[in-house]
Amino acid sequence: METEIQQASIKLKQFRAEIGKVIVGHQEVIEQVLTGLLTGGHILLEGVPGIGKTLLVKTLSQCLNLSFSRIQCTPDLMPADITGTNIIIEEPSGQKVFQFQPGPIFHNIILIDEINRATPKTQSALLEAMQELSVTVGGVKYELPRPFIVFATQNPIEMEGTYPLPEAQLDRFFYKIMIHSPALAELNEIVRRTTGQAAQPVVPVLNKDETLHLSELVRQIPVAPHLVEYVGKLVLASHPDSEFSPALVKQYVRYGASPRAAQSIVLAAKALALMEGKLNAVESNLVKAAYPALRHRLILNLEAETSAVTPEQIIDEIISQTPRLPPEVLNIISLTQP
Questions:
Q1: Which of 138, 120, 143, 142 has the alpha carbon at shortest distance from 73?
Q2: Where does a domain end: 195, 220, 245?
Q3: 270-310, pLDDT tens digit by residue?
Q4: Contact (Cβ atoms closer than 8 angstroms) between residue 195 and residue 189
Q5: Distance from CA of residue 237 to its chain's centroid?
Q6: What's the pLDDT tens digit per position in 33-62?
Q7: Taking Cα atoms as reference points, which of 224, 231, 173 lies closest to residue 35?
Q8: CA distances from 263 to 21, 91, 131, 170, 306 (A)
Q9: 277 and 188, same domain (yes or no)
Q10: What CATH code is carried by the domain that includes residue 207?
Q11: Are residues 170 and 295 located together in one domain of the fold?
């Protein structure tokens, strides 16, 4: 297994290098997107227009030998436009029958642009497909292809004509990734690449079978029991009525993260360990995974909004106040200290 992990780590470094041919900077974002790919988790990308959200996902799909589809959300987009519908066709015998016409959701990598522009009814159809990995049309259930990963984008500065995702639906996203504007050096490199000769095309690095195998390999990477307990305490500390919650949570958080958050952190830590070529996930992997796994699962109260308190500040406090070792180990340390 050690040899297999090392080979996978080398392959994933090649994958990131191919994405780097097109995407300038955003190394942490690329790592988080790749984590979603390895775990089969759906990703919500948030950032202002023009900073490469769509380009990042399109480049990711080009590095994979998988089918890709893009859905541009608008207020008039209907669920059938995504899932597909039954149409009437005429057979050679002249008999007319219904035939299912698959929608754009029937691909491996799905880019949903501006998901907050779709109506709640359409959002519900999308999120049902994400959760069940299938769609039902005309009473017939159709399985979606594997792997099936959704990358949804939303624009935080435009509120007119949008339908914010409800908190319960946000919880179905594995990660929420914040994409920020590039630094000066990165902006200069973007301009240089995009205003000169055509960019070098990316080469597919992984195929369908390799992607599925890596997802299975991720789940085989062990996490120590005390680290699993640490993740549980992190999630419980996000609840204002928990014995583990710090003062900042009790003051500003209305509802904490669900068990899906703990699952996401542990799975993401395993994927990060695989990318680094480690045989097991370590504490730093868990801490790195906590931010994108928790930020969209914390529901802040009105006082937090008026005080401009961010989810990241809450997560900082949770991590700093949560013991990272089990009580028995902490007791031994305190007894051995002079």
A1: 120
A2: 220
A3: 999 999 999 999 999 999 999 999 999 999 999 998 999 99
A4: no
A5: 22
A6: 999 999 999 999 998 888 888 888 888 888
A7: 173
A8: 32, 49, 15, 15, 31
A9: no
A10: 3.40.50.300
A11: no
